[in-house]
Amino acid sequence: MYSSEMRRAAVARTASSSIAEVAAQFDVSPSSLRRWMSRSDLEDRPRSGRPQIQRTADQVVEALVSTAGARISGKDYSTRALAEATGLSQSIVSRAMRGMTVPSNLLLGRDEVTVVAGGFPLVVIGIRAAGDRSAGEGAGGGVGLRVGGVEGAGAVSARRVQRRIAGIAAALRSSGVQHWPQRFDSEHRQADASATLELLRTGGDRERFVVFDPFGETKGLFGEAGDLAARDRDAGATIAVHSEFAEFLDDAKSALAGCRDIPGSLLDILAARVRHGFEGVLWRQSSHTEARRSSISSDSMEISSWLPKGTRSITEHLAIALREEIIDSGYQPGDRINPRLLSRRMQVPRSSVDAALRRMVDDKLLDGSRGGSRIPLITTLDVLDLYAGRMAVGGVLLRSLALRPKRYFVPVQLALRQVEASAATKSGIDVEDADLHFQQELARASGLRQSARSFEALTLRLRLFISVLQLDYSPASDRILIDDRAIFRALALGDAETAVDAWRGKVDNAVRHMAGLFARRRFDQDLWAQLTRRG
User: Fold this and answer.
1) Pairing relation of β-strands 112-119 and 122-128?
2) Which alpha helices (DSSP H) does 184-313 contain, by range?
3) Residues with Cβ within 8 Å of residue 50, at least 6 apart in sequence
4) Is 361 exposed, middle or buried (0-12, 13-18, 19+ CB in 10 A)?
């Protein structure tokens, strides 16, 4: 394509030379030169013809992938599913996905993501090197990378790692981080960078940081240490600072390619912050573990505190930890659970995990038919059966609770406040946890020990189902809060029938939400109506 300057120069030369001579000198055809001479404006014009489909497709696929979170590992985000959802061809979608990730031959499967922080004017991604571990063994021991059909104990697939790298790249781009230099300057800072800079100061000697720093916030961070990218590893972490977004993204994808896996909890946090411009992102490996232990030690014990201590702790703890493990490690139905990895993540003895897994197999929460403990294969009939059972038992519990003194309502009211707080965050996992806790407090306050224990067993199964099916309840958070408030309001007035009606509507909403997410699984709405209709 000829530049406007060249066109103007060629037309000006025709004043002293013939058209044939000027055309030969500028290597253009005489007809093109005559056309330029007839134009009053020699600036570039929009090119006619077909629009750039691939560029548009890249933006569409990027927008979908950026908000997928941990679900990007599932079938709903395969190139075929994305092609069906967007109306694009699968080959175009595949090219878009390849542009967001790295080739499988570059995946090493050794290192570990330790921290991701983002907020104007910095983005930091931290990776801990595996040290002397072999390429096939991750930091957790026995966790490798499955490439080309070769699989070790607890190995993860290369395709899943590729998709999760694409999820991080898409979140960075869709949130507009690349536009920070154009939209802001140092006088319009939206966040204090001191906390992010502190992460760099405290990095370990096997930790590598990839930093996007368009305004030079990291200059002079280590006194006379000079170039952060060239720092001696013995002095602390290796830090690579980029002022150009494209260079930062390429380096970040390269660093992530060395990791044995990308935690699903990290992807969920990034997906939630995409629409907020990547402001307020802080995911740390240590804080994630502490959050898990906190939820295990508080919520689950309160739910099951009426049970004998010998039977209440590890099974439900494991059910909750399994939910997070399925999200983080991408377990699929039929996959065998690695008890050694689970023991390390839960920070409990291996023997306790083995015993809990055996019990969950006995309770039909896990599949033990092929040896070991496996994620169950869940049919739509299983889901309808579970929800119908919860609807029936929940109605009994609510009728009993409506007759009890109001002092038993205090824990239920506190649990409702947790739902209100979680709904405001629009986080699917937080809303799910708070809502199930609210339901368990209803059961606990009813005074019906046997029915409450049955309801708890159904809750454990539901937690697992939600994890395996990778359901996202964030779009339904407002509806969940409305239903929970309606149930509590009716109970506080002693109106059992209104509470039961609200409960039945809540469960029906949950099933319809699930049916909408999994329309291709052929949810039998007629069967659901038959199972739950009143006599």
Assistant:
1) antiparallel
2) 194-201, 245-257, 264-273, 285-297, 299-303, 309-312
3) none
4) middle
Contact between residue 204 and residue 241 where contact means Cβ atoms under 8 Å apart: no
Instruction: Report the first-to-last Cα separation within the chain, whole angstroms.
Output: 76
264-273 vs 158-174: helix axis angle to the nearest 10? 20
CB atoms closer than 10 angstroms to residue 382: 13
Dig out the tokens for 360 from the structure: 């969950």
Residue type, 350: R
Burial 54-81 (b: 16+ CB within 10 A, else e): eeebbebbbebbbbbbbbbbbebbbbeb
Token pair belonging to 365: 């929460």
3-state helix, strand, coil in the chain (%, to 5): 60, 10, 30
Per DSSP, helices labelled H in 132-244 are: 158-174, 180-183, 194-201
Q: Which of 461, 462, 468 is nearest to 335 (CA)?
A: 468
Q: How far is CA 312 from the centre of its chain?
A: 30
* Cis peptide preceding 121, ω within 30 of 0: yes
Q: Is the overall model pTM greater than 0.85, yes or no?
A: no
pLDDT score at 316:
56
Other CB atoms within a 10 A radius of the CB of residue 276 amount to 12
Q: Which residues contact 387 (CB under 8 A, 6 or more apart)?
A: 507, 510, 511, 528
Give the residue carrying structure tokens 């209803």: 442
d(CA 530, CA 527): 5
| In the chain, % of residues over pLDDT 90 | 17
458-487 pLDDT, tens digit each: 888 887 777 777 666 677 788 889 999 999
CA nearest to 77, candidates 267, 255, 243 = 267
Bridge partners (DSSP) listed for residue 239: 209
Residues 6 or more apart whose CB falls under 8 angstroms from that of 304 comprise 312, 313, 316, 456
Amino acid at 251: D
Taking CA atoms, 498 is separated from 406, 480, 493, 512, in Å, by 17, 17, 10, 21
Residue 167 is given by DSSP the state: H
Beta bridge partners of 157: 146
Cβ atoms within 10 Å, residue 469:
19
Close Cβ partners of 257 (under 8 Å, ≥ 6 residues apart): 102, 106, 107, 108, 161, 165
Distance CA 522, CA 86 (A): 21
pLDDT digits 0-9 by tens, 191-208: 556 667 777 777 667 888
* DSSP code of residue 379: -
How long a stretch of residues is the chain? 535
Q: Are 356 and 399 in contact (CB under 8 A)?
A: no
